[in-house]
Amino acid sequence: MKTLNVATTLLLCLFGPSASGQNEVTPIDPSLPEERLLSAKIESVVLYQGRAAITRVATTKLTAGLWKLRFEDLPPTIQPDTLEAKSGGGRILSVDFSERAVPNIASTPEAIAIDAEIRRINQELAVVTDAIAGYQSELKVVESVGVRAGTDATKDGGTAQLDLVVLDRQLAWMATQRGRIGGLVRTATEKTDLLRKDLAAALNRQGALGGRRTTVQSAEVLLALTTDGEFPVRISYLVTDARWEPVYSIRAAPDRDSIGIEYDALVIQSSGEDWKGVRLSLSTARPSRAASPPAVTPWYVDVVQPMDKSGFAAMSVAAPESPAPGAPMEREGLSKDRADARIDLALRERRKSLAEEVSVDAVVGGSGPSVTYTIALPFDAPSDQQSRRRARIASFDAPTAYIFQTQPVAAEGVFLRGTLTNSSPFQLLPGRASVFVGADYVGATSFVGASPKQEFAVFFGADPAVTATRELVKQEDRQSGLFGGGLDTVSDYRVTISNGTGRKINVELYDRRPVSRNDKIGVELVNNSSPLSTNADYLATEQPQGILRWDLSVAPTPSGSEGNAISWSIVVSRSKDINISRLPPE
Is the pTM of this model over 0.85? Predict the structure, then answer.
């Protein structure tokens, strides 16, 4: 433990021997701090992904001098090197962390070993969780490169200009990266499962001993005061095994004229201490990640040889004082009933004001690569891995434009898609979303996230009033070329869309054509009854990969009619003497 050398001046009051033979009074050494054990409640929590920053506060009356203030019962998942303290008065001279054995039935070598094992497992779990998040981010980068590579490699739609050597290198690189990252994720996931099993076994062994933790973890704060007074003293530290994830409820009105978005945080924590009535802030930062990038290491090649709702209670409603007899209320002729009514009205207004205070959206803070959401309502979360508590970050209405989308070559049904605009000041993070239309639950979907003012798409399920039927009308081989040395396979397709909504609708229809990877094979789209989409994103990314898209305006289908038909043909040409991969039978 740290020590402090303090220069002191001793004022000794000497009392001479009295007639009764009284002894001298032993002087007090002011260089020795007075000690006090403080009971500190959790005031606030800043929750990260896999970590939480805890702030405890205790207010106590102290006199001028040196004080050693002890905070006990710190959680087993604490990271001691993150411990710090602040005081409302005086100067903090040192902050120390200590562990000591508790002399009770559980203070046996076996119990102490189990306690240490639990802390180690929790710390390793946090490290592996961070590693998996990093691998997933790396995989997204590889996938984005893959989309670009596929676009560049097939930009000529299978003509002779296609560079097969470049394409093979790109595909080989992508396969290598996916395999490498996938292996890392599998290894980390397997390690997570093993650690959780080890943790459950250690907790069971600890419970079988019949005692609580065998050690008390404490913080000792050395404080120097120059004045007497009542001061708040705060300690803060990071704990592991606590996290939050964004979840959404997207609610469309039955007539779909409005869309409401509820942005919540799902909080899970088993840090070893309960959070009761805390001020909760949710952060997108990762305090355990390095602030600077790693150095580039050398690359060597060699011959191969054989990882309490106490805060809310503090906002209790204070009733106005009742007027004393003879007060102005009675002198003005107000009856007691009217006076009581006025008091009740004041109470209701105060309750309404409190409800408005805790019903507002979270306050957004931070800048740069991370943001923080501070929740208005005091929050409870027990230390229990099985408990999931929701905290409302925000709720808002999102402007929406609707369109139908169908790809009958891949799935049945015509799906209603809404293009929503994030009209809130919040950064909507990637997460899970539950979709509702009226009171009906449509299903769950993954949400990729959106910045303020950014558009994003949400599907509201298949509309039974609209159908799309795809059929291969005919497929045949035909001889081609001047002397019949060539062979063409001609496939005729048709999609029929039936619109039973009673109004004109816009539909995006998706299909596909073969993409040649050999200059000896030609592919051509012919007899197209409707022009393909001119959307810039589609032309740049999907069309070069053989994706067909039509942007259609479909009128209501008259009674007795089959619907609106779109037809096209695909011609695959090659020499008779070469074999090609099998064409889709549909």
Answer: no
